[in-house]
Specification:
This protein is an alpha+beta fold. The chain has helices at 11-22, 88-102, 128-131, 136-151, 166-188, 199-209; strands at 3-8, 29-35, 50-56, 107-114, 117-124, 159-163, 192-193, 215-220, 227-232.
Amino acid sequence: MTKVIASGKTVEDAVNQGLAELGVSRDKVEIQVLEQPSKGFLGLIGVKAAKVEVKLLSVPEPVPQPIKPAAQVPQVEATLEGVAAKNPYEEAAAFLKEVAAGMGLDVEVHIKKQRDGHIFNIAGEDLGMIIGRRGQTLDALQYLTNIVANRYSESFVRIVLDAENFRQRRRKTLEDLAERLAGQAIRTGKEVVLEPMPPLERKVIHAKLQNHSQIKTYSKGEEPNRRVVITTK
C-alpha cells in the first residue's frame, strides 16, 4: 500500500489517521487535501469531515555499485612446521657452532660446494676434541649435521665434515696403510684382515688397491664391525 485516503474532524486529524494506516512518519509522505472540514448549519447540521490523500514518497532505487574484485592475497612461500623456509646449510652450520660452543670451543664453519655435495670445513683452536680418535667424533657430528640439514630441505643433501684437513690427512694415512699391508700379504701369502672401519674409510682401501696386479680386497662382517680383507689373487 503506497497511499490512503483518510478523514477526520480536522485536516490534521485526517493526516494523522493516514500516517497511522501507512505506518510511517510525516517526512515520508506527500499530503493532498481533498476536502476541507465544514461545521454545517448552526455548527450542528451537515457537518463535513476533512479528507486528505496521504501518499508515500517514492524512494529512489539504489544505484548499483560496481563490484570490486577481491583483494589479492599475497602468496606465502610454503614453510616447514609453520616457519618460513630456511637454508639447510645455514641451519646445519648453526647446529655445528652450537655443539662446539657446548664443548667450550669457538669455531667458524666454511662451506664449499662440490659436484656431489657440500664440504663443511671447521676452523678454530683445539679441534682435536671435534675430530676425536681416528675421526670418530667428526664422523658422528657429520651424521648429525646431515640429519639437521635434511630436515630443512625438500631434496636430499649431502654434507662432508672436515676439520684441519683431517679427511685429506686420514686418506693419505689409509692409502699408505693399504700399500704396506698389500706388501705384507704378498710376502707371507696370507690374507690380512684390517680392524673395523666406517664405510668411507673402507672405500679408500678398496680404491687404492683395486688396480693392483697381485692383490684383491673385499669386506666381511656386519656394521659397525665390518672389515676390509686384503689377499693375493
